[in-house]
Input
Amino acid sequence: MADMVNVTIDGNEVSVPKGTTVLEAAKTIGTEVPHYCYHPGMSSPAMCRLCLVEVEGAPKPMPGCVTTVMEGQVIHTQSDQALKNRRGVLEFYLVNHPLDCPICDMSGECNLQDYVHAEGREQGRGIEPKRVFGRDDFGGDVLFYGDRCVMCTRCVRFMSEVEQDHRLTVVERGNRSVIDTFFEEGLEGTHWHGNIVDICPVGALVSKDFLHKARAWDLAHTPSICDCSQGCNISLHTRDNLVQRIKPRENLDVNAWWLSDLCRMDYEWMNRGDRIEAPLDRSKGGSKVLGWKEALESILRATERSEGSVKAVASARASNEDLAAFKRLVKGLGGGEIVYRSPRIEKDIPLKGFPQLAVRRDRAPNTTGANIMGMIRVGDDSATGGLEDIAGHDGIVLVLGDALEDQPNTFGANAKLYVYVGQHESAATTSAHFVLPTTTKAEGEGTFTNYEGRVQRFWRALDPPGMARPAWLVLGALAAELGCGEVVRSAADSFAIMGVDAFAGITYADIGDRGTVINEIVLVTGV
Amino acid sequence: MAISVKVMQRPEPESTSYLRAALSGMALTFKHMVNPAKVTQQYPEEMTELSPRWRGTHVMEQHADGRPKCVACGLCPTVCPANCIRLVGGEDDQGNRYPIVYEIDEFRCIFCGMCQEVCPVEAIHVGRHFENAEYTRDRFVYDLDRLMEQDHPSTLLWDPSDPSSE
Output
């Protein structure tokens, strides 16, 4: 190709597109040149001086983050000159860094710690006292420890270039320079400031929510999908079977490296303790705990006795597999309308520097999936109301995943058969004849379809409580007994037999951890 | 194959007599009666000399104002091979990181002393102490207050004047 450039990096010949920086070219051979100020999502000021590499023919070391490769260039990232340079720069970084790693939240995932450990001096030579700034509350979820800062200005550039709301700046000069907010303004009112904690290469910016909560090396990371219809790729960081924090996961097609503050703080619901832990039979009064086999058999017997039309409530928080199995079950019982409710905010909050990403109006991860399967959105924007004709229905009432917290305890009291499948009980579930416990998205596998029709997988991060099982397994087994679909034993098989045209031919292997676009794009239309 | 029987001869009385062995045993006993070197130790009036490498139940060092020196960095639960330390970090009213919960299960502990070696602030130490009897098992889970109350000395493996053993 004409616009490819051949260069030699550390003895490896590589061919990269014209305009690629040395730092990015080195990544193609698996060499990570240490750097602080460079971030692929923002401009490069070349001010950290850590990515200086040796280029043959150049009079002095060149910063790898802004030097673009040229034909026939010979670059050394691990030569004596490059190593000596990094060693020297790292020593300068430690002149004022407090080395308070034991009490720093970044410890264990800190770039300064990693680089100094790999290439820095064993012993410090500084004898002068270090300058002290103390810590500053930047507002929002962010605390600033000025002493730890390496002045890479990633946070300043994020706020000005990506969020495009100038809230941070560098004040003072020389070794007194420090990141600060404008007067008393702070970061309140911005919707993406949590990202500056992620991109801070050291522990200068830390999250108040996560402060001292867990050490980085104790956390298990599980890929997952966020809870708004944008479908941001996230990583659930768990310890002691609890979600401790949410971090964004890079996916250039969806959210790049960013995640909104609203989504970042929305994890406590996955840690709720008041869960349904066993299948319950309340059809004969009282509440009897059943085994799964017994429970499913009792429900099947009850469906034979119960007559009347089916009315069903689903949830846009359920996965595609769950919704498809629910639909099959409703079909097996004679068919009927399925409705769902989902919360909405006033309008999309886009990220100005990356406009394809926004806090979407739809605050449920799978509204598109529910719409594709022909489910109808009812209720208002706070996911309440809209169930008047179901509450007093005298046939069969099925509920999946919606805790019905706004409904009175007379909900479903007239029903011949009322089956509640979900995670939490509320007043409206007291008249349910059968209550079946299911898993949340953090406890099982599945897929969500985001607003643009991209189907993305999430993985299991937590152990489910008690006897809770994925809804696709439970509902799929019931539907199979009623002659709709077959019994499946994995989420992948459950996805394969969904029988929805939009997903036809797609497998879990196609989706991978980056997602794939479904066959026909169904736009989400407002109700 | 036919089973053959081997007839064993009884040993001669000279070699089976217990008399010689009994007498040599008695000789040893009487030797100890007159031996000036005492073997029996009069515990608890007389305490055992502990080895300089002795590692016993833990002690938490504290600041002059009674706060624990621990900063809840999480290195001791990470390094502990017996997984006997439970730590929950938090922030006190002066903005310092401190352990909200710090518990050592002394039954699980194997007294390797790695918690002391890894501690960056010289807070947790293994002690020169061995009398740990309790009436219940749960008393062997030492919480932070209990660890700070321990009044026995720290192990001789740690020299306060040279904390990082240089």
Q: What stands out?
A: The first helix of chain B runs from residue 13 to 16. Chain B has five helices and five strands.
